[in-house]
Amino acid sequence: MPKMINLMVACAENRVMGRNGRLPWRIPEDSQFFHRQTAGRTIILGRICYQTWPRAREDGRRLIVITSDPSLERDGVRVAHSVPEALEIAEAMPGEVYVNGGERIFEEVLALPRPMRLHLTLVHAEVQGDRCFPEWRHLQWREVHRHDGEDENFRYTFLTLER
Ligand SMILES: NC(=O)c1ccc[n+]([C@@H]2O[C@H](COP(=O)([O-])OP(=O)(O)OC[C@H]3O[C@@H](n4cnc5c(N)ncnc54)[C@H](OP(=O)(O)O)[C@@H]3O)[C@@H](O)[C@H]2O)c1
Question: What is the CATH classification number for the domain harbouring 22?
Answer without folding.
Answer: 3.40.430.10
